[in-house]
Amino acid sequence: MAEELTLESVDEDGALAEALSTVSGTRAELLRRVALGGAALLAVTAAPASAAPSRSKDIAILNYALTLEYLQAAFYTEALDLGSLHGALEEQARIVGAHERGHVAALRKTLGGAAVKRPKFNFRGSTESPEAFRKTAVAFEDLAVAAYKGQAPNIQSKAYLMAAISIHSVEARHAAWIRRLAGSLPAAKPFDEPLSDTKVRRIVASTRFIVQTQRKMHPPFTG
Amino acid sequence: MTDRVFLEILDEAAAAPAELPLSRARLLERALIGGGAVIAGGVLLGGLPSTGSTAPSASQDVEILNFALLIEYLQASFYAEALAKGALRRERRRFARIVGSHEQAHASLIDRTLAGKARQKPRFDFSDTTSEQAKFDQTAVVLEEIGLAAYNGQASNLTKAALGTAAKIVSVEARHASWIRAIVGRVPAPDATDQGKSAAQVSSALNQTGFVRS
User: Which residue of B has its CA nearest to A163?
Assistant: First the structure.
């Protein structure tokens, strides 16, 4: 997933970066600042701040995970609906897609009324051919591993931590699976490094896959 | 134990209800009663973390990381022996070479993290699981699944720093598990979540392999 569109290019006046650096901003302020399509993910999930109270911080992290799961689930569903895949790739998409939908359902149930709504997506052709699908799926799965790993140590609730950990390693299985189907090494390095939420959001924004977020939601960052 | 289906053991362990933390003495007692006949020459694993209810602490990190170190040593030795015996071909050989190097890197990192508190590397006896391909396949799947389940089971018992270290390792174990499952024709990711296993469950499964000899 090339970073064609970076946060910097979207966020020329630095408002997004500023919004991300704190959880103290009001929802209205944040929404006013964040109106750009590709960066819409940034609007629905607050950056977990290091000193925030545990409950609201955990909710922000779970909503961040939920947004990534929405993205993945929609990607696999669309690729299957379009009939773009066959054989081993189709099997991978069917099983992995079901897992991602399961993760969405579990996170939504956990979050209850605090869950962010499903955004609208435009996968820009990546679901339409096996080649584009493989490349994008590898990027998504590796990104999900790094994203969960980046946030797991920040989760305060033991139950939420165990849930996140139990998903984290499944994302790694998915990553290895699709990498093998794409002709890449399933496990290329001895250690998987985490990615910060800021970096993950930047990468997701660069794809422009998220085209719209629904406004009716409980802002996780105001508790 | 080399002729038994290890996965059955793991499945039995998975089916067991959530357990209360067990003392080391209880663990040994249970292993003796439940698995004594199967151990047959192997040694019981000692010094296992009896975690589950106590808050994370530096001393608990040492117990858990030493438990992880044992598993990494076991995995690394298994792949090294299989490669030395020359029984593996093509993708299996590539898998063993790459994954074996990962397990060694994991053991080195944990050993360094533990500084002077790291356990010694035990002796192992893998019997013919490192020389017959079908047994290698089955054993590699089980060792990767055990490692993954052990890390996931201890995640909430670790301090934040140690969790950061373990998290860098556990997803690589998951990649290994997925990879070997694909090689042997099994679904790489069979479930939507990977539930952790308790130290008692993991040690029970390991004890029954008889691989650990000292």
Answer: B193
- Across A158-180, average pLDDT: 96
What CATH number has the domain spanning A7-44+53-213? Answer: 1.20.1260.10
The separation between the first and the last C-alpha atoms of chain A, rounded to the nearest angstrom, is 33
Both ends of chain B: CA-CA distance in Å?
16
As a whole number, mean pLDDT of residues B133-158 equals 96
List the domain boundaries for chain A: 7-44+53-213
Q: Is this model's pTM higher than 0.80 or not?
A: no
Could you state, in order of their start, the residue ranges of all structural domains in chain B? 3-209
Tokens of A127: 């679901």
Amino acid A215 reads R
Give the Cα separation of B53 and B21 in Å (integer).
7
Of residues A46 and B78, more confidently modeled: B78
- Interface contact flag, A169 B98, Cβ < 8 Å: no
> Does the domain formed by B3-209 have CATH 1.20.1260.10?
yes
* pLDDT value, residue B24: 39
Q: Which residues pair with A210 in a beta bridge?
A: A121
Is residue B52 very low, low, confident or very high in pLDDT (cuts 50, 70, 90)? low
Q: State residue B45 phi and psi, 5-degree precision.
A: -80, 125
Query: Does residue A15 surpass a pLDDT of 70?
Result: no
Asked if A173 and B173 come within 8 Å (Cβ–Cβ), the reply is: no
- Give A187's contacts in chain B (Cβ within 8 Å): 98-99, 102, 172, 175-176, 179
Distance to chain B for A173, nearest Cα, Å = 5
